[in-house]
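Handout, section B. The chain below has 258 residues.
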Amino acid sequence: MAPPPAPLQNVRAIVIGASGACGRFAVDGLVRSPATDTVTTVVRHYRDFASEFGWSVALSRKHIQRTVEDFGDLKAHPEVWAGHTVVVCALGTTRAIAGSAESFVKVDRDYVIAAAEAARAAGIPRFLLLTAQGSGGVPTFLPRSVVSAIHPLLYTQTKYEAETAVKSQGFSTVSIFRPGLLDRRVPGADYRSVESLFLKVMQSTKSAAVGYAMAEDATTEPSSPLFVFGTAEIAALARVHQARLDAGAAAIAAQIKT
């Protein structure tokens, strides 16, 4: 088995979709990582991440929260994006929560594209994107009206279009995370009852594991210009990240004792 990539230094990460089930754990992992200098979260409403995850005062100082009301016009806020080295994009919703097919596409594709364009305009070289397992395009002969009416097709096509748009921006490095069924059953996350039925009979991935895997990838040397992480790779990355955090916490505790 190949050794894990070497950790980076002076990482300045910006996270969009930071309030979601996976994104908030990416924020926690990034803030706790010794590789990061600053972690900026782009949100529409203030969220107390420090209290939620029990950060120390020193860790809390690394976190910068920027409020942007319109995610569709992220390029209008170049000051939010300037100076960062990596984007972690964990945007995502469902048709039920969004309220319509159009609103779902706006979040899962249009906002992702807006974030990628804003990041590229700011000269950020690296982009990490959360999509889903099986994010391939649907057959081209299907009318858009048919795709929009059948949510599994719409979901797959929307994720595919988001991936394609990000890859076309010309980032130096793109990492795509494609987990399978997500287990979002954590305090504070949106609870999706239909998913809970599938969790009883299907293999799933904890949303925390996805977030910590994204944090690990964002704080280590990229292995290739384009890398796609499936369920197994996500689980492995999350374990490595947790081991790094545990080692760091142990080192701090030892210093305090001496």
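Note. The first helix runs from residue 23 to 32. Compare this with the example in section A.
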